[in-house]
């Protein structure tokens, strides 16, 4: 009994194992019946008679039972798939499909695919250097505007290092003698010192039309870490004759007298070096003066102590400038103490497109002349065309000290006992434009209106001592007005070509004098410098001066006592005509140490009269040789 149950269990396990294979074989041999709808399941299946086949051997009882159990299991699986017991209209005990197992299922596995690849033992990892950086702590600046260029170091000359010293000597057609000497200690960043000497003399075609100028001086400059100290001493000795006689008057005496001037000047200055730091504090102190004497024993001494302090805060400048100007003049008829004290407090504002200077000029006049004045000292600049043209307006005033040195420098034929009186610029107003029109072409043009009290004028003075024409100073006692225009231009086409010029035009409205004696209304000056080659340089100058007025003694016949004719002289205004003077020069550098020069003056050979009865030298030429060492 037990064997039967064991045999039955083994048959069931075998059936469950081979059931899938039998099902697959059955499906290949026989088509699977179509699924039935719900209403078709209640119909009874009608089987067609099977075709005759060879008889099969009879099955044993165990095989029949196993077959029945396998069919039942297959039917149960099919019923479960189609709904099984959940379908109430289906009979769970009936089998609708027959499955015959013919062979067992043998799964076939593909051969394993081996990866035949060897590892790459080469190290191809790229090397990356460690990244290190330091951030720069700099201020961001706008670069839209043109900034000031840093000074460029001057390159050395092509042929050799520049020489520190040189000497020149030359001769000319008017018995001209010329000499110049310059000695310097050489290139030194902290100390500069040297001396110089100059000499020039010639004789004109007229009697005693002689002049000579001699000058010698020493100088020095010490550059420190924060301050600079400079100083110099100069001495000049000039001589000439009063040869100005009316050549048309044969009766005039002719005995030229020699004049000479001895001038000793000195100055020293202490300044703070420039430092590009915010809120910079700057200062300077200067001491200068001179001693003057002439052949008539006139004497003049002057000493000036001046300085300024300035504090900068961003675009704001505030400072104070001042000076103490002490002078004394002495001649045969007078002895004056003529001194001034000036104070100039100011405030300045400066931006990208504007600049404003606002201040006052306070002047105290003491000594032989007294007075106290407050003048404006203001200036405005506005950029009308960015980076090219600026508009400026200025208003100022000052006390102009009259000195013997200034008068004799303008006119070396001044007489004795020159009148001394300070003139006062009550209000000087000017407005104009300046800037750059094109690369290398700069200009400045402005109009002005000056109001001057006690305007000094140089006029001829014919004494009774028979020494010819000498000059004196008269003052327009009142308020004189001067209106005019000034224009300047400088065209630097390249490093080899430079052309410059200046034109002045003035109109005078005087209070008491008939004319502005010896003051031209029109004046033109110009020149050029041409660098032809590395060895040849050309220079040229042009001077054109308009006509001026002066007073001349005109002889007039008169009847004296006893009915005899006598000559009397009367001052009559005369006109000194305009003239042009053209000069040129050439320098030839033969070697690094030897050079040759030629100067030509008054090329037009015109007998110009800068002063009445004092014609200038005609055509004259001189040249010489220079030596550097």
Give structural notes.
- The protein has 629 residues and is mainly beta.
- The chain has two domains: 1-26 and 62-84 and 93-101, no CATH class; 166-628, TonB-dependent receptor, beta-barrel domain (Maltoporin, Chain A).
- It is built from three helices and 26 strands.
- It has helices spanning 2-29, 61-82, 404-410; strands at residues 166-172, 177-184, 191-203, 210-223, 227-241, 258-272, 281-294, 299-313, 316-330, 335-350, 354-367, 371-385, 389-400, 423-438, 441-462, 469-494, 497-509, 522-531, 536-545, 548-559, 565-576, 579-589, 594-601, 609-611, 614-615, 620-628.
- The strands form three sheets. The chain has a 22-stranded antiparallel beta barrel. A two-stranded antiparallel sheet has the order 20-21.
- A hairpin with a 4-residue loop joins strand 1 and strand 2.
- Helix 1 (2-29) crosses helix 2.
- The longest helix is centred in the first third of the chain and has 28 residues, at 2-29.
- The model is unreliable at 23-63 and 76-93 (pLDDT under 50).
């Amino acid at each position: 009994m037990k064997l039967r149950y064991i045999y039955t269990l083994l048959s069931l396990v075998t059936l469950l194992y081979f059931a899938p294979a039998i099902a697959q074989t059955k499906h290949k041999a026989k088509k699977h019946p179509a699924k039935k709808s719900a209403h078709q399941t209640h119909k009874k299946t009608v089987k067609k008679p099977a075709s005759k086949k060879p008889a099969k051997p009879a099955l044993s009882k165990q095989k029949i039972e196993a077959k029945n159990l396998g069919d039942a299991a297959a039917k149960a699986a099919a019923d479960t798939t189609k709904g099984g017991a959940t379908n109430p209209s289906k009979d769970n005990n009936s089998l609708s499909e027959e499955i015959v197992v013919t062979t067992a299922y043998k799964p076939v596995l593909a051969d394993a695919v081996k990866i035949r690849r060897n590892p790459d033992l080469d190290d191809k990892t790229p090397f990356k250097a460690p990244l290190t950086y330091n951030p720069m702590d700099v201020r961001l600046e706008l670069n839209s505007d043109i900034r000031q260029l840093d000074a460029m170091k001057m390159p050395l000359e092509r042929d050799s290092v520049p020489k520190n010293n040189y000497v020149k000597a030359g001769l000319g057609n008017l018995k001209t003698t010329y000499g110049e000497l310059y000695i310097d200690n050489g290139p030194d960043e902290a100390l500069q010192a040297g001396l110089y000497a100059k000499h020039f003399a010639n004789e004109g075609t007229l009697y005693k039309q002689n002049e000579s100028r001699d000058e010698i001086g020493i100088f020095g400059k010490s550059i420190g870490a924060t301050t600079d100290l400079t100083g110099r001493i100069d001495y000049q000795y000039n001589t000439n004759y009063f040869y100005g006689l009316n050549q048309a008057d044969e009766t005039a005496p002719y005995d030229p007298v020699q004049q000479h001037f001895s001038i000793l000047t000195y100055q020293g200055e202490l300044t703070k070096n420039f430092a590009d730091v915010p809120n910079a504090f700057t200062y300077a102190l200067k001491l200068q003066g001179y001693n003057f004497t002439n052949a008539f024993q006139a004497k003049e001494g002057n000493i000036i102590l001046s300085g300024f302090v300035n504090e900068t805060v961003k675009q704001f400048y505030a400072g104070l400038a001042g000076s103490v100007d002490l002078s004394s003049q002495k001649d045969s008829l007078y002895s004056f103490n003529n001194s001034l004290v000036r104070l100039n407090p100011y405030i300045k504002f400066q931006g990208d497109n504007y600049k404003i200077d606002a201040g006052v000029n306070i002047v105290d006049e003491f000594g032989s002349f007294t007075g106290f004045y407050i003048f404006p000292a203001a200036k405005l600049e506005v950029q009308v065309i960015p980076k090219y043209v600026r508009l400026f307006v200025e208003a100022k005033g000052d006390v102009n000290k009259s000195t013997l040195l200034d008068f004799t420098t303008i006119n070396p034929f001044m007489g004795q006992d020159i009148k001394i009186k300070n003139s006062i610029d009550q209000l000087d107003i000017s407005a104009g434009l300046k800037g750059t029109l094109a690369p290398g072409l700069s200009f400045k043009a402005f109009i002005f209106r000056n109001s001057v009290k006690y305007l000094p004028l140089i006029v001829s003075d014919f004494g009774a001592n028979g020494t010819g024409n000498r000059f004196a100073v008269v003052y327009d006692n009142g308020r004189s007005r001067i209106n005019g225009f000034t224009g300047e231009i400088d065209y630097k086409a390249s490093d080899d070509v430079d052309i410059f010029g200046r034109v002045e035009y003035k109109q005078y409205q005087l209070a008491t004098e008939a004319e502005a004696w010896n003051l031209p209304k029109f004046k033109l000056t110009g020149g050029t410098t041409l660098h032809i080659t590395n060895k040849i340089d050309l220079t040229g100058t042009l001077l054109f001066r308009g006509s001026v007025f002066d007073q001349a003694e005109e002889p007039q016949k008169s009847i004296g006592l006893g009915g005899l004719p006598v000559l009397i002289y009367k001052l009559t205004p005369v006109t000194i005509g305009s003239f042009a003077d053209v000069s040129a020069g050439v320098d030839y550098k033969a070697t690094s140490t030897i050079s040759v020069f030629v100067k030509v003056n008054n090329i037009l050979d015109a007998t110009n009269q800068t002063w009445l009865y004092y014609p200038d030298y005609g055509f004259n030429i001189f040249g010489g040789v220079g030596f550097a060492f």
